[in-house]
Specification:
The chain is an alpha+beta fold. The protein has two domains: 228 residues, MetI-like (MetI-like fold, Orthogonal Bundle), CATH 1.10.3720.10; 122 residues, Sandwich (Immunoglobulin-like). It is 51% helix and 9% strand. It contains 15 helices and eight strands. The strands form two sheets. It has a five-stranded antiparallel beta sheet, with no helix packed on it. Strands 3-4-7 form a three-stranded mixed beta sheet, with no helix packed on it. Helix 1 runs antiparallel to helix 15 and helix 11 runs antiparallel to helix 15. The longest helix has 39 residues. It starts with 14 loop residues before the first helix and ends with a helix.
């Protein structure tokens, strides 16, 4: 056996191959090293630093262990931020995925599909800062500045008449006293009397253009079975008028509702003043009546919805987020829809399936992988939302709109100056995002294999 020739390669024969392998490894490390350095500096170091910082107090000098994590779940503001983040995670991705799916299916059936997708995708080019400013202005409650409330008020006023004289009021001692948001006469009246009702507080420029002088109506006597009078603006332009008296230059107030109320409180009759402010009740039973100007005459005009109030600020911010990201969801789902085999859809149509059955039983199941990726990506994104919440929510309701990212910034830098508690919030946010990221990565790997 010892005399047989050896078939093992000489040690020196493998040296060039090993040198080539070492050279390739070194070249690979040269290209990978900058990325690893950036990954360590921008990701790993901040993560471990935040984890360590969360174990110290606000000053960073005293080790407190898990006290910041305990305090985090005792703080009402943090609990409210956790609740709002939960609302975001549950509502926003579901709505965006659903809207993206519906729009992707519908755009396939229109001629200008590309232009339509481009228009919907354009908000993605707008920064969150600019979008927040846009929607902060759009959500203004004053309809003269907030476009959304301008539309709401316009629709409301189309179906409901607004109050004619919200600033009108009665002078004290002129015979009218406040009653249930409106005014009533201090003394009772009977048929055959004429009762003038003077009001002030209405700027002459806000009196309707068709208003006529009230003097003639005030001078007209009442019949025996008639209770009449005039509602007028007790103000003479240029001065010289006498309070409580209808002067020649004083205007009537048209469109004012007047009620005749019996002693028991029941409304016996109701009428509306004419262009000269005159009103008249005929056919009243004999007796005493109180004349009343109901509160509807003086109600403030409808100002729309308080979108940025405590109750609606979170849905309002989510609405702005939907405006930005709907195009993203539509384009991704549309790409999956374009890759779907058309033979399956045509076969279903030939078998008699309607469009809803095709959508429900074929399109959605085949798009399930794409829908899942879109949904999980949006979940990760909404967990980190900061700009829109911080910009859109006004200061007084900022706490009602906070999510974990904004609460973390406010605690650390926005006045709290407690980087220990802020770092604990950052760690919590990381722990909530990591599972979704791992799930998405696994989905990508399974789709590639």
């Amino acid at each position: 056996m010892s005399g047989m020739p050896s078939t093992a390669p000489a040690r020196g024969a493998a040296t060039p191959r090993r040198r080539a392998q070492r050279r390739r490894r070194m070249i690979a490390w040269v290209f990978v090293l900058p990325a690893l350095l950036l990954l360590g500096a921008l990701v790993l170091y901040p993560v471990f630093f935040s984890l360590g910082r969360s174990l110290f107090d606000a000053s960073g000098d005293t080790f407190v262990g898990g006290a910041n994590y305990v305090e985090m779940f005792r703080d009402p503001a943090t609990l409210k931020a956790v609740r709002n983040s939960t609302i975001w995670v549950v509502v926003a991705p579901v709505l965006l995925t659903g809207l993206g799916l519906v729009l992707a299916v519908l755009t396939e059936k229109i001629r200008w599909a590309t232009a339509f997708k481009l228009v919907l995708f354009l908000p993605m080019a707008v920064s969150f800062l600019a979008a927040g400013i846009i929607f902060r202005l759009a959500y203004e409650q004053n309809p003269e500045r907030g476009v959304i409330n301008a539309v709401v008020v316009g629709v409301h006023d189309t179906f409901t008449d607004s109050s004619p004289y919200p600033k009108a009021r009665a002078r004290e001692g002129d015979g009218l006293v406040p009653a249930d948001g409106g005014y009533r006469t201090e003394a009772t009246a009977r048929p055959g009397q004429s009762v003038p009702l003077g009001l002030v507080g209405v700027p002459p420029t806000e009196v309707p253009s068709g208003a006529e002088p009230a003097a003639a109506a005030a001078a007209e006597p009442a019949g025996d079975d008639e209770l009449r009078g005039v509602v007028y603006l007790d103000f003479t332009p240029g001065g010289g008028g006498q309070p409580g008296v209808v002067d020649p230059k004083e205007q009537g107030l048209p469109g004012m509702t007047v009620e005749a109320v019996k002693d028991g409180g029941d409304v016996a009759a109701r009428t509306t003043t004419g262009d000269d402010g005159s009103y008249s009740f005929t056919g009243l039973a004999d007796g005493s009546y109180t004349l009343r100007l109901p509160a509807a005459n003086f109600a403030e005009p409808y100002q729309g919805v308080n979108w940025l109030g405590p109750a609606l600020v979170t849905p309002a911010v989510i609405g702005a987020y939907l405006w930005i990201w709907t195009g993203f969801a539509m384009v991704l789902i549309g790409a999956g829809l374009a890759a779907m085999p058309r033979e399956t859809l045509e076969a279903a149509r030939m078998d008699g399936a309607n469009e809803w059955q095709i959508f429900h039983r074929i399109t959605v199941p085949l798009l399930a992988p794409v829908l899942t990726v879109v949904f999980v990506t949006l979940v990760i994104n909404v967990m980190k939302v900061f700009d829109l919440v911080y910009i859109i929510a006004p200061g007084p309701v900022q706490e009602d709109a906070n999510v974990l990212a904004t609460q973390m910034w406010l605690v650390s830098f926005g006045g709290g100056n407690d980087q220990g508690l802020g770092s604990a919030l950052a760690v919590l946010l990381l722990l909530l995002v990591v599972p979704a990221m791992i799930f998405n990565i696994r989905r990508f790997r399974r789709s590639e294999s």
